[in-house]
Amino acid sequence: MKKRLFFTACCLLTALGSFAQIPALERVEPMFWWVGMHNPNLQLLVHGNNISARKVELKYPGVTLVAVHKVENPNYLFVDLRVSSGTIPGTFPIKFIKAGETPLIYSYALKARNHSAGRVQGVTGKDLIYLIMPDRFSNGDKSNDSFSNMREQGIHRDSMFSRHGGDLQGIINHLGYLKDLGVTSIWLTPAVENDEPHASYHGYAVTDHYKIDARYGTNALYKEFVDKCHSMGMKVVMDLVHNHAGTEGYTILDMPMKSWVHQWPQYTKSNFKYEAVMDPHGSAADRKQMLDGWFDRRMADMNQDNPYVQNFLTQNHIWWIEYSGVDGLRLDTYPYNDPEYMAKWAVDVKAEFPHLTIFGEVLTPLPYTQAYFTQGNTINRGLDTHLPAVTDAAVKDAIYEALNGKDGWDSGVTHLYTILAQDFMYQDPSRNTIFLDNHDMSRMLSMVGEDMNKYKSAMAMLMTLRGVPQMYYGDEILMKNYSNPDGLVREDFPGGWDGDKKDKFTAEGRSDKENDAFNYVRKLANYRKNTPVLHNGKLMQYLPEQGIYVYFRYDGKSTVMVVYNSNDKEETTPTARYSERIKGVKSAKNVMTGETLDLANLTVGAKSTLILELGK
Hints:
Strand content: 15-25%
Shape: globular
Number of strands: 28
Number of helices: 17
Distance between the termini: 70 Å
Strand order of the largest sheet: 18-17-16-13-10-9-20-19
Structural class: alpha/beta
Radius of gyration: 26 Å
Helix content: 25-40%
C-alpha cells in the first residue's frame, strides 16, 4: 500500500503507461438521468476494458447521439447526448459494438423529474443547521460496520483515526431528538464512498462520486433519510468536494487522461493562502500553487480547467440533488477551486434548482476576504462568482473576541460590532452561515473556558444575529476539546452505540449541568424557530459603551432586543440611548425566563446576555 501511495501521489504522470485490468463494461455515469432538465446536454463517462475500441449506438425518440470522445486512456469513452424537452421517460439500450465480438449493452433509463412539494426548498434565515459527522453520531445498523472488500477494516472506537460505525440509520433513529431540540436543517459531512486505507471516516476523500459509503448505508437509504427529514419539517444540506478526490478512486487509479488532476514533478501541496488568488500584485507561481497544489497526499487535486472534469463534477452534483431532493449545498474548500469553473457551476446548478441554497467554506477572520468570494463582488475580479453565501468565520472569531477579550477601541465586544459594520461588502449578509465551531476546529465550550455564562451568551448571539445559524453535534450537551488533532473534536455522541455507559440523547443520561445547557439551547432554538423577526428582520446595532453591547432585530411587526454584558461583573445600564428602536416601549419580556422587565434600566450578569421581546 505504501508503494501505491507513492505512485499515486508523486508519479501520476506515468499512470497512463499501463492500463488497469477492469471488466469489459465497468460503469456508465451518470447511471441514469431525467427528462425535462434545463440543460438538454448530457455527457456519459463510460469506463471499461479497452472500451474505446468499440463503436457506440443508441436509438430512442428525443435522444440524439451528438459525439463520442476517445481520450488518452483506452479504458474510457465520453459520450455526448442531447435529450430534447419533449422526450418521454423510458429505458433504452446503449450498445458498445466491436466487430467479431458480442456487443456490450447498457440499459439506460431516463426518468421523470420529481416536482413534489418540499423538495429542494432551500435553507434560509428561518433555519437552524445541525452539523453531524455520520461516523461519530450513532450506530443504527451493525451489519454495515465493515466490509471485506474495502480497504479499511473493522471499527475501532478507541482510535480517533479509525471508523467508529456511525451511519445513516443511526441519524434517522434520532431525528425526533433533533426536532425536539429545535433543529430545522441537518448538514452531514460527506456521506459518499471514501474507500481509503486510513482515516477514511471524515468523508472528504471521495472514491466513488455516485455511491453512498456502504458503511453508512445505501443510496436508497440516503434518499429515505432526506424524505424522512422533509416529512418531519426538517431540511438537508449536502456537503460537496469539488477541489479533490481520494487517491483510491477509480478515476485516479485509472485516470482518463494525464490532465484529469493537477500534475507536479513531485508532490506539491497547496500554500493554503487565499491572498494568492486575491492579490493584484501576486505572482502566477503563488496563485498556481494555491489553486493547483494538493490539499493532502491522499487527495488528488482535480483539474477543473479540463472540460471532462467539469462535466463529471457538475452532472454528479445535479444528479444527487435531483435524486435525493436535498435543500442546500455546502461547498468544501471553496477558494481552492478554479474561479471560472465555480462561477459556471453555480449558474448551471441554480438553473436546474432555483430555490437551492449554496454556501462556500471560506475560513478567514477577515470580512473582505470572505466577501471577495461571494456573488456581486466583481471589482478587480473580472467575473461574478455567483456564490450566494459563505461560512462566516469572521463573525465566529468576533464572537469569541467579544466573550474572551478585553474591550477596547477594536478589541473585546467592540470587535464584534466592527465586523458586523462591514456587512456592506456582501450583496446579502443574511445568507451567510454563522457558526461557533465545526469538525475542523476547537469546540465552543473549550473556546470559552467552560464558562457557562459565556456558553449561553455564545448560543444567544448565534441564534439572534443575522445569518443562518449552524451548530455542531454535541454542543448542546457540552461536548468539549481542542482541535489538536482534529479527532479530539470528532468524538462519538454518548448513547449512540449499544453499551455506552451514558445515553445523552435522554435527560436521564445527562448531568444536571448538561441538562441546563440542553434546555437552554432547546428553548432558544424553538423560540427562534417560531419568531419570524429573527429569520429575516433587519439588524440594528449600537456602538458598545462600557462593555455593554446592544443590538435589535426588527421588522414592521416585532422587535427583539439583545443586551450583552462583556464585563466581569454585573452591570446596570440605562436604555434611553436606544430610544430610536425602543420607540417608547416601557417593558419587555425576558425570552428565556418569561419575566417582564422595566426597560428604563437593565441589569445584566457578568458575561451574560438578555434576549428581550419588546411589548407593543
